[in-house]
Amino acid sequence: MAKPLLEVSDLSVDYPTDAADVHAVKEVSFTVEPGEFLGIVGESGCGKSTLLFGVGQLLSPPGEVVGGSVVFHGHDMVRLAGEELRSVRWRDYSVVMQSAMNALNPMKSIGAQFKDTLEAHRTMSDGEIEQRSAEVLRMVGIDPVHLASYPHQLSGGMRQRAMISMALLFTPQLVMMDEPTSALDVVAQRSLMSKIKELQETLGFAVIFVTHDMSVVSRYSDRVLVMYAGEIAEAASTEEIFERPRHPYTRALMSAIPSVRGPRRELLGIPGSPPDLAHPPTGCPFHPRCPDVMPECLSVDPPLYPVEDAEVRCLLYTEQAKEAV
Amino acid sequence: MPPTQNSRGRATEAAEPLLRTVDLTRHFRLGGMFSKQVLHAVDDFNIAIHEREIVALVGESGSGKSTVARLLAGEYRPTRGEIYYRGRSLRSLRSRKDLKAYRGEVPMVFQDPFSSFNPVFRISHGVRRNLALHRPELSRDQRRQEAERVFESVGLSARMLGRFPYEMSGGERQRVGFAQALAVRPKLILADEPVSMLDVSIRAGILNMMAGLREQEGVSILYITHDLASARYVADRVVVMYAGQVAESGPTEAVLGDPQHPYTQLLLSAVADPGEKESISGDTGEPPRVINPSEGCRFRWRCPYAIEKCAQVTPVLRPVGSSEVACHVAPVAPEKVTEPARMASISK
Lengths: 325, 348
Known about the structure:
The structure holds 2 protein chains of 2 kinds.
Chain A: E1 6-16, E2 21-32, E3 37-41, H1 48-56, E4 64-72, E5 75-76, H2 82-88, E6 93-96, H3 100-103, H4 110-121, H5 126-139, H6 156-167, E7 174-178, H7 186-203, E8 206-211, H8 214-218, E9 223-228, E10 231-237, H9 238-243, H10 248-255, E11 305-307, E12 310-312, H11 318-324
Parallel strand pairs in A: 3-8, 3-9, 6-7, 7-8
Antiparallel strand pairs in A: 1-2, 1-4, 4-5, 9-10, 10-12, 11-12
Helix pairs in contact in A: 4-5, 5-6, 6-7
Chain B: E1 19-29, E2 38-45, E3 48-49, E4 54-58, H1 65-72, E5 80-85, E6 88-89, H2 96-105, E7 108-109, H3 124-134, H4 140-153, H5 170-182, E8 188-192, H6 200-217, E9 220-225, H7 228-234, E10 237-242, E11 245-251, H8 252-257, H9 262-270, H10 308-312, E12 318-320, E13 323-325, H11 332-336, H12 339-346
Parallel strand pairs in B: 4-9, 4-10, 7-8, 8-9
Antiparallel strand pairs in B: 1-2, 1-3, 1-5, 5-6, 10-11, 11-13, 12-13
């Protein structure tokens, strides 16, 4: 079997505070194959962005990786530093931030920002730089005349597209996206998603896509990780997750989405909020909000059980997991 | 059970609605003193909101939805047109007292629960201040009781009154926004994108709470959103806005179940339902620019059905089925073209 593009093993990220260490990501393991579209879903405060930053070596203090490894292209990223890391970052993998709309420098034209990025990694003539910049802008459907535009002259959707084209400057093998569409309107969101998918299929890069909205990933991702309280609650193929959601949290997330078609049904939402990770509840972190809570959930923190083609962190699946063995 | 929908519809339309607008228009002049650029944020906008009714105002960013909310709240003065509240024009409210009374009956809830509270005051501050300002007849004790009551009616516990904003989650803060509005015994709450900054899992709770407020407190709500699915969930009627004008309005199930205007169809085709896979439109969702607009339909550049007339005559609202639609081609498009063909023609 070919080696995965990215192999994350037991990655843990802490934010030390005076009172207590916040375990924002706890022993998360997953792999990304070349060209795969992986969705990571969860509510705010579930550690999805921290996970992405941990994988991309973009954590800023006090956040730090306290354990595990991130093997990308045979390098353990956690151990790379300084020049070595800089050379890989953005060239081999890139990141599109949540507030990409504000991530552009307001004082510089789009073209100047592209130039900075290109020059940081490669020696190129001005002509080559312009050619490449125009090329990537065209890829995302923006007219290259906007290389001379400043961010404020572009609409939100266009800025987001410009950010994505910047992430593609070096044709990376992996692009990580942190809620790139959540600030956009429906039509812009839909068009951006299909553009990302189209580029992914033609250029063949892998995508890690973080979102809180299940309906966004349903159509585009190959696999979905559902995160809760810094851990993977459920991992399965997109089809499996939507056809047979197993973890009560996954089911709750799905039942929170209103539909524009089909019958109107009551939305339950999820009562309460994600746990304070500085003081997580005992046992299963989801038990205070879980509709299927059992007495043992209060004391036992369940491991990830393999259930058919999925992995589920829930005591409901103890028996099924045993049978499978 | 999903929230019940008012089957009010046309039967009571003869009665004076709680609030209605007549050709409401708001323009903004752009640039310097001699600039001739005029942004048409809202043009000839007509809406009626009845008692105990939830009306959703739907559109993309830049469609003028928030300007409508500010006009209705009395924050902006209309360039032209009238707003009638219980049959009385807002222009006749001249005294401070009248305006205060109006603002108490028609309060606003804002989009961003993270920046709409003063971080140095306890969360009870807004509620208590509203009570002191708008209901001076209450004693100190009654004010405290009333604050507790409104907190409980939005699903918060009275204990939370002593908290600071940073101690509350986004969903809880948005509930506080509604509690502040409720404290003044409103008739109509203007809710400007109250859930768009919240996680999907939290939104359902706020939507259910809005439906509950209508049932228990008898308020009407103007729910401004770009999320059609949530509009369908809570609203009795939907008004779709494009470039400052009403594109289509009618009962929720009619507008979203059988959309007549090409813009409504585009919005609907952009909504992803979990699990469903199909191809999509090539529209990039660029917001309309309505600076010195010329005559003609403002949607014609994005419209797959545009005909010559669309560039010459601005369409006005006219009844099609049980909705009202501002489109020259409207009745033809959805009936003659079959479903897959319609999708294909939109995705060109």
